Amino acid sequence: MELRSLIRDIHNFPKEGVVFKDITMLLQNPDALKKTTVALLNLLEGKDIDKVVGMESRGFIFGPLLADKLNAGFVPIRKPGKLPSETISETYELEYGTDTLEIHLDAIQKGDRVLIHDDVLATGGTAMAACKLVEKLGGVIVQCNFLIELNFLNGKEKINEYSVQSLITY
Taking 90 as the threshold, does the pLDDT of residue 93 lie above it? Predict the structure, then answer.
């Protein structure tokens, strides 16, 4: 099964000029969901992970599945005001402004070996903000992995100090 065939392009979403990579067909197919999870795990072969960090919101899909298979904890990183306990935040640049992410202050312990996971690596801003949050709490980034990398946006350059793995590149 070719996973790429289950990812469709949605033109002009969420705004004019953007081609959105829609993974819902992949998620709806049980065999593809299993194959994707196994393939993402294979990107981590030999790595010891304590926590998997997933970014809102599509990082919440495969992040917990990976955490379960790795016998690791799952840590959500969310938009401001969405986490109920004390948080720290990181603001980062977008093509059209800024955005902010938050993590619970007690989510990562000093020395935790962390996998950063998200569905798409585009410009790298979200991933870099997540890495900074984890490191502020004393975590060690073992790897950043992504289902999809849009390499024409050069996001990997922003996080090139870390090990970066992507399952599918465009």
Answer: no
Tell me which of 16, 45, 86, 95 is the catalytic residue: 95
Look up 149 and say whether it is catalytic.
no
E strands of 56-139, at which residues? 73-77, 87-94, 97-104, 113-121
DSSP annotation string for 15-62: STT-EEEE-HHHHH-HHHHHHHHHHHHHTTTT---SEEEEETTTHHHH
- Residue 2 annotated in active site: no
pTM: 0.95
Q: CATH second-level architecture of 46-169?
A: 3-Layer(aba) Sandwich (3.40)
